[in-house]
Amino acid sequence: MFRSALALILMAATVASAEVPDDWKKISGLLKDFDYEVEKKDDWVQATHDEYPNMFIKGYKKGVLLQAYFETSDMDVSEQTIRKLNNKLSLNATVARFYIDSDGDLMCETWYPGKWDEDRFEIFLEAWHDDTKGQYSMISVLTD
Known about the structure:
- Helix content is about 40%, strand content about 25%.
- The chain is α+β, with helices and mostly antiparallel strands.
- The chain has a single domain (about 1-144), classed as Yope Regulator, Chain: A (2-Layer Sandwich), CATH 3.30.1460.10.
- Strands 1-2-3-4-6-5 form a 6-stranded antiparallel β-sheet, with helices on both faces.
């Protein structure tokens, strides 16, 4: 619980000048259509889902930044195994980028440039889902 709260704080601080997107209500409406639970925080929007990674959404460089955080540093696996997973996830990604943060945790993020367009954002969100749909199963394999 403490680690999750700390992760939220660290996520909020990762991007300088990030803030709640101007179109957050429209984004929230679309995410709710995809069965996300959406909550506005001070500097970001949090979206949680049963099947997809929980997201932190921020306005960034005239667009929207989506981030997901996977706590892998506490797993009893080697750094090399986490790097292989990172590379495997990155290999077929369309819109997402995966990386290992300074704590050794797996991060995933994507940037939607420009102004809100519902059709374009829906296509973008579906690509995010395609890129991230295997993360939970791949990460759970590490702990088995």
